[in-house]
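User:
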Amino acid sequence: MTTRTESVDTPAGEARVTWHPATGGAAARLVLAVSHGAGGGIEARDLRALAAALPARGVTVALVEQPWRVAGKKVAAAPKVLDEGWRGLWPALTRPGLPVVAGGRSAGARVACRTAAGLDAAGVLALSFPLHPPGRPEKSRAAELLGAGRPALVLQGGRDPFGRPEEFPTPAADHPYRLVEVPYGDHGFAVPKKAGPTQDDALAVITETAAEWLLELPL
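Assistant: Predicted structure:
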């Protein structure tokens, strides 16, 4: 698979997009654009797994590095600046002329939810959505998820300290989303060595669930 990386100027600084084009001879059906969290980059295990698995299913994956990360800073920018950077690079994501699903892990998932409706994203893929800070369930960010205004899939580790699956609000008719648990996964979807499922099993849950959901989206 041939990948390519491009730099994109945004009002928040230079962002970077690494493209993993659809393979197998079939035309791409959509673009899945996913960004990283506040504590890491596109080398996260779930982002790497999606980029490796989905192109063969007709999905072009664009891994997005936010400007603060490209600039080498160790601390993520404020939410307003993160959203500004994401909006600024959106035209590059839509350039292939395909529907674009906005996605991200942790802080990147929050960005995708906050901006999806305004950018007319085809859907939202939220990986390890940080429902609340660890140990602070009263600081809920559920409104960002429920307000995405687009079909949404949440993939959440069963032991994520930022919000276990059972802590999430019940989807409502006017705020629908699908929640799938990754058994034993933590915030980075790491599973204990003594758990029944292996690390590969956990990643397979992520890639297979995401592939099925993406290909069922009404585009």
